[in-house]
Amino acid sequence: MVYQGGRRFGTLAWWCLAVIAALVVGVFAGRATLATPTAGASTSAVPVYTVAEETVGLSQAFPVTVKREPLGTVEAASTGVVTEVFVADGGSQLHGGDVAMTIGLRPVVVMHGEIPTFRTLERGVEGADVVQLQQFLVAEGLLAEGTDDGEFGASTQVAVRAWQRMVGVEDDGVVRTGDVAFVPGLPATVSLAPDLSVGDEVTAGEPLLTVLAHDPTFEIAVTPDQVDLIPLDAPISVEGTDQTMWAAAVGDVVQGSDGSVTIGLVGANRGSVCGEDCGAIVVADGGTIMMATIAVVPEATGPTVPASAIQTAADGATTVVRESGAAQDVTVESYGHGRAVVDGLDVGDRILLVNHGEPAAEAPPS
Fold first, then answer.
1. What is the pTM of this model?
2. Where are the domains of the chain?
3. In this predicted structure, what is the pLDDT of residue 15?
4. Which segments in the chain show pLDDT lower than 50?
């Protein structure tokens, strides 16, 4: 029994020594296989890459807060209960003649004018507010051009009666104070006054509508570290309504007292980001979120190599290794997602992937 136990021990010991020897040989063999060749050294085990033409760049997506700044308010000219509202949440674009709401079932019609409604307009009154009413009636084709003289006469009264029949109220030729809401700068984007809803009673002088800026503001909140990564001339695209893409650029960059940074966006032509589409944007209370894509590294097209194949010398020079083993100086034109467009190589050239198997950096060192 003792002999058999010793025999078993001897067999196990030899087996362990054999495994250890195999591991040692494997480690040395692995080191020899993974060793990075240098220019002029044997390169038979290094993968070869054929340079191809590609388009490379690096973009990053950011959420954009879209807001409309309030410009003023439209106040109620009479007392009554709000019975209907025709302004959407987040604001609606209204033109002259649109009904914003009804108060006591009587329509409140939007018209262009700098002077707010402050009195009943009827035959015999005169003034600038009468001119505003007459200009609306002329635009509607109800009053002859050139008759907007500020005098509420017989022709104006006839035109008012025709307009009243259009909106469905008694055609008595008298425009009551609550019938019209004069708003500057039509078409205008307006929202319902805060905390106002159907069923609420309003009194004269109480806010009915908030007039909002037609062109919304577009802002990106970033960290101080992110700001350093965004070039001031970076092309930006904003995904707008109905998957429309708007070209934008970096506008004002503002740093808050808490260290936060806000990047304002402007249109590519330094105008509005949304252009003719601004009126269709519905902006919720507190702002609406859209997405913007910023070209952190602008796209370039040309001879492209894996970024991991680029080596950086102590003096900052960037090189690749040709198939022959010779070093080739290159200049990185663009990079992104492990690829780099370089100057110094031609399409079809063959290089060695000397760092093959190592994690590729997002960008080559510079």
1. 0.66
2. 39-57+299-352, 60-68+215-297, 70-101+182-212, 119-176
3. 34
4. 1-41, 357-366
CATH superfamily, domain 119-176, is PGBD-like superfamily/PGBD (1.10.101.10)
Cα–Cα distances in Å, from 251 out to 218, 228, 254? 10, 15, 10
Query: What per-residue confidence (pLDDT) applies to 356?
Result: 55
The CATH label, of 3.40.50.300, 1.20.120.530, 2.40.420.20, 3.10.105.10, for the domain at 39-57+299-352 is 2.40.420.20
CB 304 within 8 A of CB 52: yes
For the beta carbon of residue 8, count every other beta carbon within 10 angstroms: 10
Query: Reduced to 3 states, what is the DSSP secondary structure of residue 29?
Result: helix
Residue 14, pLDDT score: 37
CB 233 within 8 A of CB 279: no
Each residue's pLDDT tens digit, 177-187: 999 999 988 88
Instruction: Check residue 16 and give its pLDDT.
Output: 37
**Distance, CA of 240 to CA of 237 (rounded, Å):** 9
State both tokens at 6: 């010793």
The whole-angstrom separation of Cα 237 and Cα 298 is 13
pLDDT of res. 34: 32
Residue-level pLDDT at 138: 97
Dihedral sign (CA 41, 43, 46, 48): positive
Residue where the block lists tokens 């940074």? 261
Burial of 204: CB neighbours in 10 Å, binned 0-12, 13-18, 19+: middle
CATH class of 60-68+215-297: mainly beta
Phi/psi of residue 280, nearest 5 degrees: -85, -5
Q: Return the pLDDT at 63.
A: 96
The whole-number pLDDT of residue 259 equals: 85
Q: CB count, 10 Å around CB of 9? A: 10
